[in-house]
């Protein structure tokens, strides 16, 4: 009977639910951060974080940029079509550039100083600084190599055209412009709203 009293206690039930919820979050986070086979989400191996002192940027293939633009267009179209009075809507957007990947680099520098004395007793000193860097490469268990990606920079939107059935209504047009500004983080001068046929 004493066990049933604890089960009726709301605080006990709340504590058990909290522990279960935290356990589920930890399991989900471990699946996202650590992929099977010892691969991490950032790459397919391990790297010494102390040796990654610099970064460089590389552009990704056009396919991933096209996929990003298509996904962004689809999401914007879904949001705008939900606005009251819009009706059917089509969206086209252009990007300023392609996606850039910032990769880690291992940098080292060596300082050298030398002093020389000439025949007249004068002394000259010279110093130099040699620097070198190389990209940090991760090796997967299958033998493939890839650079350690530190950060992905999505391309910025250059402009957007919105064609909507309700685009002739000034109130609807204003709502579409403000929604596109918010979603895409661009100015109103880069947004054109047109009335559909």
Element pattern in H and E: HHEEEHEEEEEEEHE
Could you say which structural class the secondary elements and strand pairing correspond to?
Answer: alpha+beta
As for the CATH topology of the largest domain, it is GMP Synthetase, Chain A, domain 3
Share of β-strand residues: 35-45%
Report the biggest beta sheet as strand number plus sense, adding barrel if it closes: 4 strands, antiparallel
> How many separate helices?
4
List low-pLDDT spans.
Answer: 36-53
The value of Rg in angstroms is 29 Å
Could you give the count of β-strands?
11
Number of domains: 2
**Based on the structure given, which CATH architecture of the largest domain is correct?**
2-Layer Sandwich
* pLDDT averaged over residues: 78
Give the helix level as a range of percent. 25-40%
Query: What's the oligomerization state?
Result: single chain
Q: In CATH's first tier, which class of the largest domain applies?
A: Alpha Beta
Description:
34% of the residues lie in helices and 37% in strands. The chain is α+β, with helices and mostly antiparallel strands. The protein folds into 2 domains: 1-35; 36-111 and 127-195, 2-Layer Sandwich (GMP Synthetase, Chain A, domain 3). The radius of gyration is 29 Å and the shape is flat. Residues 36-53 have low confidence and may be disordered.
Strand and helix layout:
Elements: H1 2-8, H2 10-33, E1 34-35, E2 39-40, E3 54-59, H3 62-81, E4 89-95, E5 100-117, E6 123-135, E7 137-139, E8 145-147, E9 149-153, E10 157-164, H4 170-184, E11 191-195
Parallel strand pairs: 10-11
Antiparallel strand pairs: 1-2, 3-5, 4-10, 5-6, 5-9, 7-8
